[in-house]
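Work Package 3 (structural annotation) set out to generate three-dimensional models for the target panel prioritized at the project kickoff. During this period the team completed the workflow that converts sequence records into discrete structure tokens, so that structures can be stored uniformly alongside our sequence database. As a representative example, we reproduce one entry of 259 residues exactly as it appears in the project archive.
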Amino acid sequence: MPAREKAAIVADWLPRYTGMPLDEFGDYVLLTNFKAYLEAFASDFDCEVRGRDRPMQAATNADGLTMVNFGIGTSNAATITDLLTAIDPAGVLFLGKCGGLKHSTEIGHFILPIAAIRGEGTSDDYFPPEVPALPSFKLHKFVSEKIVERGMEYRTGVVYTTNRRVWEHDAAFLERLRRLTALAIDMETATFFIVAHANQIPHGALLLVSDTPYLLEGIKSEESDTVVTRDWSRVHLELGIEAMTDIANDGESIRHFTF
């Protein structure tokens, strides 16, 4: 039996996963894995949240900017990035949290990763391990300008992406992270970068340092995550909205050349 074409699959699955019809998606997309971000976005712009009964939720404001809450982990990151090919987005920015692995990455710092180490395995289904996980330079340049305009600092460096959740107790894994000299660790960035690259989607990530797992007292807890959400998540969301809205209005293409 012949395989169904990918275009037909994603055109059916994107609305099925999010509850949002294809014609309601905007050209520019913010991705997050936090329900609170999506609810704040919908409240700010008085737009409907689609897919409350679905695996993912989405909302689009009057400016045509869409936000999707896709959940946590590499599998979900790959899935939503594949499904977004149904709308051929002009740009996608991931707003995620990460664990800082250096003394220079304190809680509340923002990170614009220049690359991500593919420690998760999911991205191997898309490209050989030798292919680096990189963002689209023009998109990151635009986001960095928005941060500077607010008089804020950010860090650049390499993020390690893993599909492990509970690893903070593992001394051998912590030592490996130290030897890799990664700036931070998360569960989505490398996968998102690689799958977006495979699908020729302009992409980037603005990460918020939410914990410092190299320190015993810095391991994330319910209490510490509540503080991060209270003190920094709002500006994180605002930066993403401003960057993607202004990119859309500016009209400058952020697509890479096709090789």
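The chain has a mean pLDDT of 90.
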